[in-house]
Amino acid sequence: MSIIRPSDTAINSLDYDAGVGHYTNMTKICDLLGVAPFTVDTIPTLANIGELIRYAEDYIDEYTKQSWRPSIVENEFKDFDFDWARMYRFSRDYKYTDYVGFIRLNREDVRKVLRLAAWKGDNWTELAGATCKIKITDFTAITNIVLQLPNSGTSFTLLTHPNDAGSFNNQFGNTTTAQEIVYLINEQAPSNTRDFTGQNGKKSLSGISKFFYASLEEDNSVLISSLLPADDGKNCTVTVSGAGITKEDFVDNENMGRDNDWWIDNQTGSIFFRSSYPYQVKHSLKCTYQTGKQTVPAVITEAATKLVCCELMSSDDNTILLGENSNSGLDIKTKFDTYRADVEKILNMKKRLIYLIDSD
């Protein structure tokens, strides 16, 4: 079940450096404060406003234990309880069930299952998503990797460089190179490699992380999942150059639906298995998925906007930005206190509650 309201917030594509977040943007902040738009030359700069928006969004998510923006959960392991009674209808209670077992993901509001791997005793069998795989065999003999969207769409070329944020380092070994490729595709900070590559900050490559997600496998291969809806990602292409790298093309692993291998209740994060499932119980499912509510309520935008305004008011010691005089109405402290009280009221209203019911 999803609720779509006419008042839900509509914001342009995410770009923190341009002052555009998931919950609010620079324009809304300036309108509330009554100040001129921020630019690269103002103090604070437009990029500084983007950082404050990022902080406000994290605060809201942590406070409410919910999220209205997309995030990815990687390699969540689950036990699979195979139920023979349910499978073979041994009990009247299971007469009308159509699954042999199910799992409950840790996060709700699942947008897309990127990967659902079942352990079949000697290998992981992919049950979801459209994926390809690349394998590094000689890190010194790699030229580039090209990922392209369907229908000869946008292509992303991954090049090698010792410490450039838009490339991957291939100077230390096969595993390090594979990890660097993962960081570049996901546009993440290279936390495990930056101490010896010398690269600071996050990697970045023309927004590639909006379309693909990569993970490092146990055999040090790189599994790349498409973020496109359903099975559209099967039409993506991957090309590799160099004698030290091999690839497996994109394939559609998914046979998902109420009458197929498995199906999902996205709101609760429950996955029901019908005809394809693990052969073992403990830690037999490995899940990677995108989560986050699909729409942003207007009150969440209000909370995020007022949080950023409070940060600006608290840091504007000399009232250079906001100004303050006898004709300005409410003084800055009163505005700060009012906005902060509004934020707390909204977030308490939106806080996720968990009820534990004792049957005794």
Q: Can you walk me through this structure?
A:
It is built from seven helices and 14 strands. It has helices at 26-33, 46-64, 84-88, 174-186, 194-197, 298-315, 332-350; strands at residues 71-78, 101-104, 110-119, 124-126, 130-136, 144-148, 155-159, 212-216, 222-226, 237-241, 245-252, 262-265, 270-273, 285-291. The two termini are 31 Å apart. The model has no long low-confidence stretch (mean pLDDT 88).
Q: What is the terminal-to-terminal distance?
A: 31 Å
Helix amount: 10-25%
Radius of gyration from the alpha-carbon trace, in angstroms: 24 Å
Q: Describe the biggest sheet?
A: 4 strands, antiparallel
**Mass-distribution shape:** globular
Largest beta sheet: strand ordering: 1-14-3-4
Please outline the helices and strands:
Blueprint: H1 26-33, H2 46-64, E1 71-78, H3 84-88, E2 101-104, E3 110-119, E4 124-126, E5 130-136, E6 144-148, E7 155-159, H4 174-186, H5 194-197, E8 212-216, E9 222-226, E10 237-241, E11 245-252, E12 262-265, E13 270-273, E14 285-291, H6 298-315, H7 332-350
Antiparallel strand pairs: 1-14, 2-13, 3-4, 3-14, 5-9, 5-11, 6-7, 6-10, 8-9, 12-13
Helix pairs in contact: 1-6, 2-6, 6-7
